[in-house]
Amino acid sequence: MKLFGKMLSSFSVMALLCALVGGIGWWGINHTRDGLEQVGEQRLPAVQNLGLMMEALNAIKATEKTMTNPASTAAERRFESKNLMNLRQQMEKTMADYADLPRTEVEERLWGDYRKAWTGLLAAQDQLLKKIDHIALDEVDHLEAVLLARHLDHINWVRGLEKAVVNRRAFDGQLNPLRCGLGKFLLSFMSDDSEFNALLDKFAKPHRMLHNFGHEINDLIAEGNHTEARRLLDSKVKPTLAGIEGIFSEVVEYVRRDAGDLREALKVAHGAERVAFEGAMEALDKLMEQSLEQTALARSEAEHEAELSQMLSLASVILGVVLALVFGVFSARSLARPMQKLVAMIRELDNGHLDSRLKLKRSDEIGEVAATMDTFADSLQAEVVDNLEMLARGDLTFEVTPRDGRDRVRGALAKLGTDLNQLLGQVQTASLQITQGAGQVAETSQTLSQGATEQASSLEEMAASMNQMAAQVGQSSDHINRAN
């Protein structure tokens, strides 16, 4: 594999390690997010809606208590009636929101129980509202007691008046119709029930007449006219009291009708409505318990997923770092070691040492460089150094062939051999010429020997020297001939 492929593979492995770490992190984040979504978007809204339903049920119960309280006013009942309808609408909306959320099988069963109880509660509430809506009086039970007390007051008032007539002394009872108990009640009582108000208005005339008769009887007693006082008592006072008693009967009957409706409403509230309410609340309690349990379970699972994700992410990071270091060290060593050998060989070559070889068996560019360096060293040894050694021994028979026109090393060595051969040829030619000149000198010397005896010894020495030089030149010529 080429160096590019190895480097690309190395970076691919690193990319895969990064993808592995990122994938594990993404998996953990995704699972943690799913757990948080289940808690935040399903379980918590379920708990919240159930809590709102429980609050609405308690508010409905409080509203019904106010509506069925005998001491409540008609305005309070009307207000609570509207409030009850609003609470029912709020409950229906909250139930719709909860119905859209996913539920377990157990929760679905409990939800069915609650809806059944809620339907029964609505039916009981409708009966209760039907009874309550007929009640237009304030403090119904108290009102009946007040009216009965005022009725008894006037019976006792007439008895006291009769006793005064019998005893022939002045009546000391209340003679002002506005200051007696009934008079004060009529002045202070307020109601939105027009029918009941019309019944109360019937008291005005006979009540005023009754108290006026008391004034007249006192006057008659004071005058000593006891017979007329008795006649007025029997003919006017008692019939007027009977009329007032009739009005009391109508008014009390009217109040008792509302009181009866209130008692019927209380029966509903304490009977079917309470059973339905308790059933609904029990179902909600169980739903809340189940929902809280599921919420805790979902939260626990989310926390477990988060912890698992954290552990896996940490393990993947550590594994990635270790693998990256191991792979990096391996890759670095696979590059550094041959490069160190290559540098060492180049230094050896720089020092003139040609015995070092890389001998790397690699298929990449480093292997090619190593093979080239080994070939280069072999070439230097065989084609340059060996030929130079032959040249040093005086052997000019070496042959060097340049690789191309730019091969300066082999070209220079080949030129050196050619130039040396040419030089030796020139030396051989010069030697021949010297030999011929020496012969001519010898002949001349012999000719002159006769005339210059005193120079004979000098010429003989010169001849001997020339002969010695000729011998040396002859040897050089022989070497040149062998070289050619």
Short description:
With 484 residues, the chain is mainly alpha-helical.
How many separate domains make up the residues? Answer: 3
Distance between the termini: 52 Å
CATH architectural type of the largest domain:
Up-down Bundle
Mean pLDDT: 81
Beta-sheet strand percentage? under 5%
Which structural class best describes the helix and strand composition?
mainly alpha
| Poorly predicted ranges | none
The SSE string, one letter per element, is HHHHHHHHHHHH
Report the biggest beta sheet as strand number plus sense, adding barrel if it closes. Answer: none
Number of DSSP helical runs: 12
Specify the CATH class of the largest domain: Mainly Alpha
Please tell me what the overall shape is.
Answer: rod-shaped
* Helix proportion: over 70%
Structure summary, number of beta strands: 0
How would you classify the quaternary structure? single chain
**CATH level-3 fold name of the largest domain:** Four Helix Bundle (Hemerythrin (Met), subunit A)
Alpha-carbon Rg, integer? 69 Å
Describe the structure.
The protein has 484 residues and is an all-alpha fold. The protein folds into three domains: 3-135 and 279-314, Up-down Bundle (Four Helix Bundle (Hemerythrin (Met), subunit A)), CATH 1.20.120; 140-270, Four Helix Bundle (Hemerythrin (Met), subunit A), CATH 1.20.120.30; 394-483. 84% of the residues lie in helices and 0% in strands. The chain starts with a helix and ends with a helix.
